[in-house]
Amino acid sequence: MNAGFLFFIQLVVSGIALGCLYALIAIGFVLILKATDIMNFAQGEVIMLSAFICYFLVTTFHIPFLAAVLLTGIAAGLMGIVTERLILRPMLGEPVFAVVMVTIGLSIFLRSMAGILFGHNNLVFPSPFPREAVKMGGIVLSQTEIWIMLSSLVLVTVFFLFFKYSRMGLAMRGTADDQDVALLMGISVKQVFALIWAVSFATAAASGVFLANVMVINLGLSSVAISAFPAIILGGLESIPGAIIGGLAIGIIENLAGGYLDQVIGGGVKDVTPFVVLFLVLMIRPYGLFGKKEIERV
Amino acid sequence: MAIRSKTFHESYREDIKLFETIWIKFWIGLFLVVLSVLPLIGDPYIVYLINLSCIATIAALGLNILTGFTGQISLGHAAFFAIGAYSTAIIADRLEVPFWICLPASGVLAACAGLLVGVPCLRLKGLYLAMATMSFGVVVEFVVITWENVTKGVRGMSVPTLSLLGFSLDSNNKLYYFLIVLTALAIIAATNLMRTRVGRAFIAIRDRDIAAEVIGVNLTQYKVMAFVISSFYAGVAGGLYAYVMEYIHPEHFTFLLSVQYLAMIIVGGLGSILGSVFGAVFITVIPEFIKALAQFLTLLFPVLQDKYDDGWNIAAFGLLIILFLIFEPKGLSGVWMRIKTCFKNWPYTY
Amino acid sequence: MEFKKMKRVLIAIALICLVVSPALAERGVTKDTIKLGLILVKTGPVAALGLPDGHGMVDYMRYLNDQGGVHGRKVEVIWEDDEFQAPKSVAALKKLIHRDKVLSLITTGGSNQTIANMKTINKYRISNIPNALMREFFDPYQPYIFAMGATYECQYQCIVDYIFDDMKAEKPRIGVLYAKKEYGKIGLKAIRERAKAYGVDLVSELVLPTGAVDASSQVLTLQKNRVDYVITCDVLPPVISFLKTAEKYSYKPKAVFGFNWATDDMIVKACGKGAENYIGVNFVGGWGDDSPGMKLVRDIAKAYGRDPKSLGLTSLYIHGVGASYLFGEAFKRAGKDLNPDSLKAAFETFQDVDTGGIFPPLTYTDKSHAPPEMVKLFKADVPNKRLVSITDWRTPKKID
Q1: How far is CA B137 from CA B141, B320, C179, in A?
Q2: Contact C151, C373 (CB under 8 A)
Q3: Which DSSP helix (H) or strand (E) runs through B257?
Q4: Mean pLDDT throughout B87-106?
Q5: Among the ranges given (B54-68, B268-282, B304-318), the one the predictor scored with the smallest mean pLDDT
Q6: Given an 8 Å threshold on Cβ–Cβ distance, is B45 in contact with C91?
Q7: I need a labelling partner for B327 at 20 to 30 A (CA). Which of B43, B127, B148, B165 fits?
C-alpha cells in the first residue's frame, strides 16, 4: 500500500474510534431529547463526574476495573433518577426555556461540586488495557480504541434490542411519540422519564470511563460534550441511528481536517471544521440528516 | 367624583403608555437620583460592577428581543458582542475616530453580521437554530484568533480611552454616567419598539409563526429584522465593554458568555424588558454577593478559614438558579409582577 | 420646570464626581500587620495551575510569620478567585484595593488578567509579579511589574540551542505542536526564527488544542513527515495526550521538548515509559534538587501539610514559594517605613539576589524589571517518576 493512502486510512480508522466516543456522548443527549424534549446541558458534567468516580473506585478503593465501570454506571444511573425526581419533575409543564436553564444551573453546580469533592489536579487513569498497539496491515489501533469501538457496538446493539423488543423500551418509544396517548395506554410516563434519565446518565458514564482512558482527567473534561454537539445535530436531534452516524462522521471529518487542512490552511482547523460542516448541513437540511421533519399544514 | 381604586385603562393609547401612573414616574425618578449619587458613596468596586451590569443589560435586551420576544433561540450572542468589541477597538485604534462614530459603527457591523446569520437561519427552529448560531460563535472565535493582522489574535488588543466632549473618561467612575445614560436609552428604545407594529409582529411570530404569517406578518422580513436589531444591541454592548475593560482578548468571548446571556434573560424573564435588566444585574452581581457573604461567614467562624473551598460559591450560584427556576419559572420579572400586584391590590391581596 | 432643576442638580453631582479623585491613603500596613492580596484562579479547569501556585505563596508567608514576621509585622494574605476571567479579575483587584485596602498584590494572575488590570496597577502602585512570561511586561519598562521567569522566547531558544549544541543534531527535522494561545504563538515564532538562524526550516507546524480528545492526526502527520525533534508549546494535559498517542503509534522522535508550564514531574507520572524522551525547560529548580532553596521549599511543604503527591503541579508550588520569597525579601529591605513606593524601591535594590536555587539569581533596577533569562533543562527519570535537571542555569547563546 502506498504511504499516502495508508496515511488516509489510518486517519479514517482513528477517526472512527474518536467518532464512537462522540456517538456515545451524542446518544446520551438524544435519549433525553427524544423522550422529554430537553437539551440537557449538564451531560458533560455527568461525563466528567463519572470519569472521576471510576478513577477513585479503581485507585483509592482498589476495585477491579470492570466492577468499577459497573458501579460507575449504577452511580450515574442513580444520579439520573435523583436529578429527574428532584429537579426536572417539578418543572414538568413549564416552558422549555426554563427547563433548559435548570440544566445549565445543574451543570454549574455539578462542575463546582466535582472540584470540591475530587480536587483540581490532573489525574491519569491507570488504564487496564495493555499499552501495546495492534497492527493490522500497517494500520495501528491501540487496544483502548478497539475496546471503545467494541463496547460502543455492544451498547448500541443493546439499545436497539431494548427499544425494539422490551416492554419498557416500547413504553419509552411510545412516550417519546406522544405523551398523552402513552398516558391513555396505561404507560407510567413518570417511570419512563426516570428511567430515561437513568439510562442517559449511564451512557454518559460509559463515555466518561472511555474518555478517562484516553485523556487526562480534570474538570475540563466536561467541555468534550460541546465537541459532540455537531454530532447530535448532524444526525438529527431525535434519532439514535442518526447520533451514531453523526458521531462517526464528525470523528472522521475532524481527523481528516487535522491531517490535511491543518498543514495547508494552518491554525487549528481541526476544531472548527465540525461546526462549519454542521452549519452547512443545517442550511440544506434544517432538521439534520435523520431528524423528524415536522409537517405543517396551514 | 369617581375615586380610582386601581389603574383602569380607558383607551388603547392608555394601555400602551410608557409610564402608567404618576407613581411609576416617581419611583423611576427616585431610582435615577440614587444611581446618580452612588459613585459618591460607593467605592470603585461597586461602580465597576454596575458598569458591567449596564453592559450586560444592553446585551441581554438584544438577546431578549430575539429570543424572548421573537422566539428565536440564539447561542451565538457572544459572537455579535465580540464583533462589536473588536470593531470598536479596531476603529478607535486605527482610525482614531471619536466614540460617537465608533459605537454606532460597531453596532452596525454587528448588525450586518446578524443579517448574514439571520438569512440562512430562516428555516431553522428551536435547538437546530441554537446550534447553528453556536457554530457561528465558534467560527467567529476562530476568525478573531486567526486574523492576527487585524485583531492581534491571542495577544489581545488595547482599546484607547473614550473621550466625550473633550473630557477623557479614563476611569470607571467617569464612564459610569455615560453607561447609565446609554442603558436608559437602550431600555426606552426597546420598550418603545415593543409597542409598535414591529414589536407586535415579533410576539406574533413567537406565539405561532404560521398564524402570524396568515394575518399578514412577513416572516422573512421580521425574523431577519429581529436578528439585526438583536445583534445591533450586542454590538453596542460589545463596544462599551471594550471601552470599560480597555483590553480585549478572544478568551473574553467564548461560548460560555453566550450561555451566560441566555441565563440572564431566562432568569430575568423571557419577553420582558424589565426582566432583561433584572437578569443582567442578577447574573453579574450575585456571584460577587455570594463571595462577600462567604468571606463574611469565614470571618464569623474562623474555623472555616483554611478549609473553605471557593467552589462552594459557584455551587451556591448554580443551586440558586435551579431553585429559583423551580419555584418561579417565569423568572425575576414574574416575582416582580407578583410583588407589584400585591402592593397594587392592597389590602385586598390574596 | 422641576425637571430642569433636577437636571441641574444631577449635572452638579456628576461634575463633583468627576472632580473628586479617589483619596490615596496609606493602604494595608499597620504597626503589626501587612495586608497582601493575591488573585489566582481557584475554581474550574484552570485551577490545577492556580491552586498549587497560590498555596506556595500563602505557605511561604505563613513560614515567614512563624519565623517572627518582617520587622515585627505579620503578613496577612487575602486570596481572591477570578475563575480565570478578565472581568472578574478586574473586579477582584478593585475589591482588594478599595475594600480590603491591601498594600500590594503578590500576583494578579496570568497575562490576560494582568494586562486588563494594568491601569489600576499603575494608578494604585501595586508592585506585583505576574504569572506570565511576555516581553510586554518589562519591555518597555512597567514601573510596578516585576517580571520573574525566562520569557517564552528565551525558553525556546534554549531548546533549539540544546538540539544543535548538546544533542549535536545534523540537519534535524524539527516539528512544532502549539496551542492557539499567547505562549503557543510566541513559542512557534521563536522556534521558527531560532531554527532559521541555525539554517534549518521547520518541517511541521501543527495545532494541538488544549482540550484535545486525541492527538492521532497530529502524531500521524509528524510521523509521515519523519520529524525527529518535536517541540511542544502547550500546557500539560495536551502534552500528556500527545505523548500517550505517540507511544500508541510507536512514534519515537529523538526528543520531545516542552516549556515551563509543561515541565513537571506530573508528566513522567502520567506517561511512564511514554515520557522517556521528554526534555523540559523551566526557570524554577527541580523538586529533588540538592540546593538550599529547594530544601526550604520541601521543608515548607512538609511543615504546612502539603503532600507532594496530592499537591498537583509541584513546579508551580515551587514558583509560588519563590514569588513570596521575593516579596519577603523586599519587605525586609523596605524596612519599617513600608508603603507602595518604598516597596517598589526595595525591589529595585535587588542585586543578584540568591534564592538558593529556587529561581536563578535576579536583579532589578529602577530602569529595568527584566527577569533573568535563564533556564534549566530537565530530563525524565522514568523509574523514579520525576524529572531531573541535566544542566545548570543557562542562557540562549549569542548567534550573529
Answers
A1: 6, 28, 19
A2: yes
A3: helix B255-268
A4: 89
A5: B304-318
A6: yes
A7: B127
Sort out which chain C residues have CB atoms less than 8 A from B29's CB and list them.
Answer: 6
CB B69 within 8 A of CB B127: no
Mutation target among C51, C81, C96, C235 for the B interface, most CBs of B within 10 A: C81
Taking chain A, what is the end-to-end CA distance rounded to the nearest angstrom? 58
CB B318 to CB A230 under 8 A? no
* Alpha-carbon gap: B171 to the closest alpha carbon of chain A (Å): 33
pTM of the model: 0.90
What residues contact residue C142 under an 8 Å CB cut-off, 6+ apart?
Answer: C118, C122, C369
H or E segment and range at residue B169:
strand B167-169
Check if B43 contacts C (Cβ < 8 Å). Answer: yes
Is B329 within 8 Å of A98 when comparing Cβ atoms? yes
Question: Using one digit for the tens of pLDDT, what is the confidence trace for A1-43?
Answer: 577 888 899 889 989 988 999 999 999 999 888 888 888 999 9
* B7 pLDDT tier (thresholds 50, 70, 90): low
Q: Residue C211: its chain A contacts at CB < 8 A?
A: 220, 223-224, 227
C380 neighbors C150 (Cβ within 8 angstroms):
no
Distance CA A116, CA C186 (A): 35
Give tens-digit pLDDT for C5-40.
Answer: 556 655 655 555 444 444 444 688 888 899 999 999
- Is C311 buried (19+), middle (13-18) or exposed (0-12) by CB count in 10 A? middle
Stretches in chain C below the pLDDT threshold 50: 1, 17-25
- Residue linked to cell 538550599: C292
Q: Is B36 on the interface with C (CB under 8 A)?
A: yes
- Of C10, C20, C98, nearest to B45 by CB-CB distance is C98
Question: Contact B132/A278, CB-based, under 8 Å?
Answer: yes
